[in-house]
Design brief:
This protein is an alpha+beta fold. The protein has helices at about 5-20, 20-25, 50-65, 140-145, 180-195, 205-210, 230-245, 315-320, 325-330; strands at about 35-40, 45-50, 65-80, 90-100, 115-125, 130-140, 215-220, 230, 250, 255-260, 265-270, 275, 290-295, 295-300, 305-315. The protein folds into two domains: about 5-145, Nuclear Transport Factor 2, Chain: A (Roll); about 180-330, Nuclear Transport Factor 2, Chain: A, CATH 3.10.450. The strands form three sheets. A six-stranded mixed β-sheet has the order 2-1-6-5-4-3. A six-stranded mixed β-sheet has the order 8-7-15-14-11-10, with helices on one face. The chain is globular and about 60 Å long.
Length: about 325
């Protein structure tokens, strides 16, 4: 059985070069770690970028300039074989916050001069000793809120800087027992299939449905604009119920990677879902226009059920498809 330690080490070296700023001052320092046809997927307004130098220039250099003294605060680090044969490969994933002093504007967001945290999750595919593609998803509206902006109407969950796993064991630099990863992947697969098969015609209550996959004291750490919620009953009330009521024509587009290691697992898609917001979701205008949701989910399993879930949704991209450019609206200069 592969222990994925080589792939983990490659990604750790890659992240260290990014965090130190050396990848910015010496772009060729990444040449032995990242392939020439590297593909990077990021949230709006970055989207898909080809080539590590373009990624460094477009994303990392401006971010380092804005969030000075940048440091990565890891909450989850794991690796595994992609369980989806259509895409395959070994992937290394991480999650946490990029913390710095918000000293210069970023994407037009006014700086505060104070600590700011950009919550993120990423997946990196490693082939023949090199990173060939990455998906890095980050919560820009959460950063806006730290800067005193209100990009969305009041959310149903709580807005807060989100902690990592309650058990503090998510950073898995060492190899984990393979059987634990299999249990976690099975729990994630069951939950995904159960939701995908939901057609709105079940007689059971939403809470009874959720109890098949989730621990009673589950925590759902949602993106800014939706918020976090705790326990099955509050999750059903504050997110899952409103989410299902707010959309029609739910299309599951599948995932690019789904994998697990130890008690942790996750997946991402591009996009995962296509939905039509006819119910005025998030207090925004209702629409008959389908929109895409690019999502990363990270999970912690306890026993046979999932107990913590961190969600990253490209809400800026989704609402822009609806004709609402939240980023432009929040960062435009007031006219006199």
């Amino acid at each position: 059985m592969a222990d994925f330690q080589n792939e983990k080490q490659i990604v750790r070296e890659y992240l260290a070069l990014l965090d130190s700023g050396r990848a910015i001052t010496k772009p060729d320092s990444l040449s032995g770690l990242v392939s020439g046809d590297y593909l990077w997927r990021g949230f709006h307004p970055f989207n898909e970028i080809r080539g590590h130098e373009a990624v460094t220039t477009t994303f990392w250099k401006p971010l380092h300039a804005s969030l000075t003294s940048l440091q990565r605060r890891l909450d989850i680090f794991m690796a595994g074989q992609n369980s989806l044969e259509a895409h395959g490969g070994v992937w290394v994933a991480s999650m946490g916050h990029l913390m710095g002093l918000f000293d210069l504007p970023w994407l037009g967001i006014k700086p505060t001069g104070k600590i700011a945290m950009l919550r993120y999750a990423d997946f990196h595919r490693v082939e023949d000793g090199m990173i060939t593609e990455s998906a890095m998803y980050f919560d820009i509206p959460h950063l806006m809120m730290q800067a005193g902006l209100n990009p969305f109407p009041p959310q149903t969950g709580a807005n807060l800087v989100q902690p990592g796993p309650m058990t503090h064991d998510g950073v898995m630099f060492d190899a984990q027992p393979p059987e634990e990863g299999k249990k976690t992947l099975a729990a994630v697969d069951y939950m995904v299939t159960d939701i995908k098969d939901w057609k709105g015609g079940r007689i059971e209550s939403l809470t009874d449905e959720l109890r098949r996959s989730w621990d009673e004291d589950m925590v759902w750490w949602g993106p800014a604009g939706i918020g976090a919620t705790y326990t099955i009953e509050r999750y059903a009330e504050q997110h899952s119920g409103p989410f299902r009521a707010g959309f029609k024509d739910r299309i599951f587009n599948g995932h690019i990677c789904r994998m697990a290691e130890g008690a942790y697992g996750g997946f991402f898609g591009w996009p995962n879902l296509t939905l039509t917001p006819t119910g005025g979701f998030m207090g925004m205008p209702a629409s008959e226009v389908p929109g895409d949701m690019r999502v990363i989910d990270m999970y912690r399993r306890d026993g046979d059920k999932l107990t913590e879930n961190w969600i990253f949704i490209d809400l800026l991209h989704f609402w822009k498809m609806q004709g609402v450019d939240v980023l432009a609206r929040m960062t435009e200069v007031p006219r006199t």
